[in-house]
Model the fold of this input.
Amino acid sequence: MLERHRRFRVWGLDIGQTVKAMAFTYDKTGNLYLPAQRNEKFLTPRTARNSAFSGALFDAVRKNTGWSHDCGEALGVSFCGPVIRRTVMVSVNRRIGAPLDLGRLPVLNDGMAHTLASRLAGSGKGHKGAYCMLTLGSGVGLGMFHWGDHGDALVPNNGEAHFSVHTEGIRRVPKCNCGRYGCFEALVNNKALVDLLEQEGVEVPGERRDNAGFFIEELTRPGMRPNFKVGRALGAWHQRLASGICNLWAMNDMGGNRLQEPPMFVLGGGLSRLVLTATLKQFCFTEFGGKPFMGKRLLIRKEKLGNAAGCIGAAAWAVAECLDMDPLNIRVLRG
Ligand SMILES: [Zn+2]
Done:
């Protein structure tokens, strides 16, 4: 076998409340090979001091996956909080604000990891217009690409959805974890959905509050009587989602210059299972009174990579760093 096709192991870690770990292989030409089936999941370590986090993480990864730092296996990390160069800002265990030590690992924000994976191997692959990915879960991740003269460009400084959307008609505007009222993040995350259900008089049991997606799916299974309260809560949630998408649509389009048509929005994360794309698109057009100044073509899709996206993005990021390549030039291939 040619040396450049020799395969090496790389792990992709997706860190949130739990750590998802997937083992991939790669070669020196920039091919990243998807694993047939290997997915470990374990609790994110909690440490009293931020500086102790990387040590605890390495121990947990070693114990749960057999990963070994010594034999040169690469490791990339997708993290559920703002990432500034290699420094992640705490959000797993504590409030955002203090840097959390991750040693010298290649790390990127989880919104960006999902976006990269979607672009390389998922629903965003091959799309030529502006592209935006939203991951909907306990938080809201955001990643965008613009299509430039030299190929794609990752829009820097995104990953978090702390921008305001209009709040007229919203009874209880939640306070965002960034301290503001009216953030898109706080209006469409899991907590907001639970609140919308409760405003309609749907009781959400304690153990189901962390994932309203599954709870709603159970209440609306095919063959069940229509649940109008859940329907109204979901309708309001779609409206809020549409409002944020319209903001991003206008921004992606450079304020109406129609430079990067058609814009495509890909929705991932646990709550994306609830999205009715046609309804959402309808709400988006309604926001503009039926006549968006950006043009008429708006694509909304769901991400097909599912919950593997974070690990794939993290592994691609690590491989790009090992090989000193543009991450958008990594080729993701089956086993
Ligand atoms: Zn915010």
Notes: Residues 162, 176, 178, 180, 183, 185-186 surround zinc ion (CB under 6 Å). The radius of gyration is 20 Å. Helices lie at 53-65, 110-121, 184-188, 190-199, 212-219, 228-252, 277-287, 309-323. The mean pLDDT is 85.
